[in-house]
Amino acid sequence: MSAKLDLTLKIWRQDGPKDRGQFKTYQLKGISTEMSFLEMLDILNEQLIHLGEEPVAFDHDCREGICGTCSLMINGQAHGPDHKTTTCQLHMRKFHNHDTIVIEPWRATAFPILRDLVVDRSAFDRIVSAGGFVSVNVGNAPDGNSVPVPKVNADKALDAAVCIGCGACVASCKNASALLFVGAKVSQYALLPQGQAERAQRVQKMVAQMDKEGFGSCTNTSECEAACPAGISVVNIAQLNREFLRATITATT
Amino acid sequence: MSGTVDQIGSDRLVSRVPSGPIAQKWDKHKFEMKLVSPTNKRKYTIIVVGTGLAGASAAASLAELGYNVHAVTIHDSPRRAHSIAAQGGINAAKNYQNDGDSIYRLFYDTVKGGDFRSREANVYRLAQSSTAIIDHCVAQGVPFAREYGGTLANRTFGGVQVSRTFYARGQTGQQLLLGAYGSLMRQVGIGRVTMHARREVLDVVTVDGVCRGVIMRNMTTGAIESLAGHAVMMCTGGYGNAYYLSTNAKGCNVTAAWRAYKRGAFFANPCYTQIHPTCIPVTGDYQSKLTLMSESLRNDGRVWVPKTKGDNRPPNEIPESDRDYYLERKYPAFGNMVPRDVASRNAKQRCDEGQGVGTSGKAVYLDFADAIKRLGAKTIEEKYGNLFHMYAKITAEDPYKVPMRIYPAIHYTMGGLWVDYNLQSTLPGLFVLGEANFSDHGANRLGASALMQGLADGYFVAPYTVGDHLATSKLAAVGTDHPAFREAAGQAEAKTKQLLGIKGRRSPDSFHRELGHIMWDNCGMSRNAAGLEKAIGKIRELRSEFWENVRVLGQGDELNQSLEYAGRVGDFLEFGELLAADALQRNESCGGHYREEYQEEGEAVRDDDHFCHVAAWEYKGDNSAPARHQEPLTFDEVHLTKRSYRE
Hints:
heterodimer; A: 253 residues; alpha+beta; Ubiquitin-like (UB roll); 5-stranded mixed β-sheet; two-stranded antiparallel sheet; 7 strands; elongated; B: 647 residues; Flavocytochrome C3, Chain A, domain 1; Methane Monooxygenase Hydroxylase, Chain G, domain 1; 22 strands; globular
């Protein structure tokens, strides 16, 4: 089952936001196919520390595919070659002996590089802050069962709500559009009775903030869906467009 | 650590549990606490450290009330906190299933599940708050699982005989955290919360004996920054990563809590660690973390091992008659749904007996064949799809076809900073919420109770109790130019310089891994006095080597992940010793703390005469032994009995 790989890594190194950055090449030997991709990078970093070279900075945390912290363009694919998989859940069994692996950060104007493979994704937080919520203070809630939610709507809302906010959709889009991310949040609340009161303002405010952050436009190539580790469907973009149109026609403010 | 002073019924540990019948304590207390008027709230600033379920819910609720809030997170976004990874569900005493549930039953199950080492009044309040949590989360638009009629669905978790767990597939924590995160970001947009992302709290600052702020490192620029306020809420999660391999995220650490301990907050019951029975087994030395498979899987999965040692036939070729469904055999009343500590110990015992499976022999089967036959693969996918997907990604095996292989791993820590009924630590002005405190789960946490506690503390407890502190304390105006802030900032900077200046030969990771081995081998699922003494000696040796031989490259004034990590490892190397010392002093077995000397046929044996208390440790200086204080525990409602899940 387990085999060993010798690999060539070409990794983007950049000292800080203002540095130009460049690719550096590293050789790694004897990588077990049972390892995760980030464990392979851990081993590289241990070797670099041993050699006195600063380790490669990369974002990661839960290493179980749910926190959305890890990123990486791996051979030009966001989160690498495995379908519906974050980089932290990608395993080396997807690679072959003597492969060359090119590792880059997310590249988008709205996600400036901080160092090496680490980017700033706070633009997503600001989009949520503009309207990606239900305005309900603690203490105001009726009983949880007072408003029935049809199972099919609850399931669809959850399908949209499982977005992990990693930014792969933006990184894989040639226009660096954030429409899949925004669409997922807008759809979740549009499908639920709790989201109705702010339905129109929500989509307008989130889209306005998205534009302000410098994300590009959607040209329906669906790269985002193909790259999404959480399986968010482009149906959510269609829903977003409908919601936006509806809000434009019906909004009173 | 020998020669610790044991202080019984310490006057430093005033629990402030209100008098009166248990069901009325919290209402009475809420009435008796002083209020801050709506127009005065904006004059107070509260600093919330951590943005998981406890931190995000507290920051949002406090801002909704009108306080100025600063929220601090080590992540790039508050949504990344490790609460996001909680899988199975959240308990609430709704009795929607009409199966006899009640607040009292949830309270009873939690006290019993915690093996009689939690504070009754806190647990009762937790059970009381549970129902409002569900209501609030539904109102936030959390897409919980529903029945076809549109009502909320439930499932069962370990250690209970009712269905009270609300869930969103196997990603309940994610959905609850995103709900709290939405509320928090709403307050950021309104301007009541100032968000400080990518900041690591390195110290708390006390002025006139009251906690008034924090020192933090800006992880992007390396700048040491200060925040001053009127109260600090520590919501920084648990310390499971002291064991290196755990189900915690890589960034989880004890640093902020540990530095607060060194400033006067007592650390309670550090030896109470939860070892979760169903995790994906270790595959190699390079392993960086362990992945949980939710306890909810035990609703439909059956745990078994081959009856005969060394039976290495593929699982599907082992006939029923040659299988030992040991949990169903030993605990007929609860079967596969025994509490986590019981399930973990039994898995270890089977593997120690040579019945373990897989290449390492350190695994047991969790088998869904019967459930798939009964319910169909589609239903199983609806309930657990993301977990099965995750398992397949990691192991390259299809759990719809072959049983999962699972083994226990460190998952949650019941111990934490000591708090009174108000969730205030022994350091006035420092409140501790969620996993970071110690109060509600005793020596073992029941499944689906961590999310409940984090949100109860943040939405429904701390927002009231902090008001009482603000209304009753005379707090002088203090800014970050106060000498106490300058001194603490200077110390934080000096520590950074010290780490960078050692220029040794070993990486921070190598120290952390070695510490993890010491902790797991001697202070893990089963402990004994000799092993614990050995562990303490080894930790001390490793710690002194660390401060002479760690290699941290790069500079302090830049994004430097090695430097961040080294600081955390340094704290784990101190904290690990306290954990072992606490385990050594507690001469009994209870819940997750299993001392080999105190057991009967492999079941934990408590010593209520000598250990029916909380052990809270007081820092006495780097070169002195900490003092062990005791808060006696009384059980007026759920009477002390031997915990049994057999009948």
